[in-house]
């Protein structure tokens, strides 16, 4: 299942509004098929994995990070039927599909076909890998990642405003990879005016993957951009299950104050800027106590001399 | 030698102006003596280790984190003589003693006695463990640790000034242990007025170890405190080889601007304060480029939900 979830991440940010599922087909001790939801949402992970294992699937086990789809679509066959037709003997599912058109129906239907179904295997990990889909289904909005490149003392720029660069090349490359895992990227007016960011993905092989560009502000958006006037309007961003907020400090604060940040993606450079521009403006915190218990470290690694730290929301919302 | 260096840390902050040395005596594969410089500077590590191994030292090997002392003192015997008298066959030394009264003379003297001497084993690690002594000898001032308890966004207090507590109990306990590794602790006037910090060590067994309390400011010091009016005056703090600077933001900035910080000791809480008080005030950085290449991560560990990060000076000075 860990392998299936890892595969699911390949589709992250490219399958909206579909979930980015991962699937592995195993026969005996041999992996005979691997699949993940393709860009645009089709083929589904299960269809791809089954096709790869064609002719060998009888009696095999399928590991799917999400309950296979039950609902009919003009775009392709139902995964439950493909699984049954392929002679799969056992299906292991991480998370049930919250979409009301499936939501447990596939599990019941597969069992009715005499197929063994195990559920709840690494469900939290699977939901985290498909956080955008789950946020859309359960919260009615995209999952939001707030990305900040910070000095040790929490600054995103020197006192004179210069910010190129706080972090080193390995961290900036990683941030570009993370852009590719989001359907849309948002910056505030101030950042747009100061940096005119292209928000494209400047890495070999990813040049063509351009997430939607969203401006937080008022008035007419620049060419090629969409605009929203308030963080709560992210629900209106069509075709986006994962939104990355890239700053600046006012925009970061607006999303934090609205409690609309699900993941903090911090790149921390080993520098002190002393008196520089803080990365987060006033979030209207009522007290110090209120700041605690909201974030949980889920990943950390060195990228060159910088540290990447990922914090996940540690409370409901 | 790693064991000898680890022992040397037991004396850190308690042996000034003497070095905090660690020593291990090994015969065959058995450790027969362990010693570290005792509080106040005597007995020396070698004397303690040799006493422990009494009667077994003939032909043994001594590992000392610093070249044994050569100079005569009314307070005790010269370690080189103790070593020779004990019949030690080989002495392994991490770092040569920069004190001109010894500085290589012990190494030559021991060799002249027919004792094998190896030097330079883990010298950098040994110097780091005795940083206060080396700073005094080579820079004429104490080694300075800047301690900061910070939020993810680099704040040391909420916008309303409240700062108890940013970090959790495990991190605060660790900070108290670190106080015990310094001879003196310094805060600025603002912190003194705001917090009236006791700067004692509130941990079982360490209550009696009270580092000197130093105020950065002007005028008469409070009872039980000494005062200096500028960071460059730290050289005048008698009996202190290791100084911990505990804040606030102006004091941190003053030491950083004067390039007088050797170690950054950061306790990072998983909270965002957004618009709180930055931990470091203006340090007069001429450009963003000038901030880079100055700090190197040398230790990191989790303390409860907080992260401790230790950065060492990565440039000369």
UniProtKB/TrEMBL annotation, chains A, B:
Binding site for Zn(2+): 44, 69, 79
Protein residues bound to substrate: 163, 179, 202, 246
Active-site residues, record numbering mapped to chain: 46 (proton donor)
Entries under SUPFAM superfamilies matching the protein: Cytidine deaminase-like, Dihydrofolate reductase-like
Residues annotated as domain CMP/dCMP-type deaminase: 1-110
Residues given in the record as NADP(+) binding sites: 149, 165, 191, 195, 199, 248-254
Involved pathway(s): Cofactor biosynthesis; riboflavin biosynthesis; 5-amino-6-(D-ribitylamino)uracil from GTP: step 2/4; Cofactor biosynthesis; riboflavin biosynthesis; 5-amino-6-(D-ribitylamino)uracil from GTP: step 3/4
Record flagged with keyword Metal-binding: yes
Reported function: Converts 2,5-diamino-6-(ribosylamino)-4(3h)-pyrimidinone 5'-phosphate into 5-amino-6-(ribosylamino)-2,4(1h,3h)-pyrimidinedione 5'-phosphate.
Designated name of the protein: Riboflavin biosynthesis protein RibD
Organism of this sequence: Sphingobium fluviale
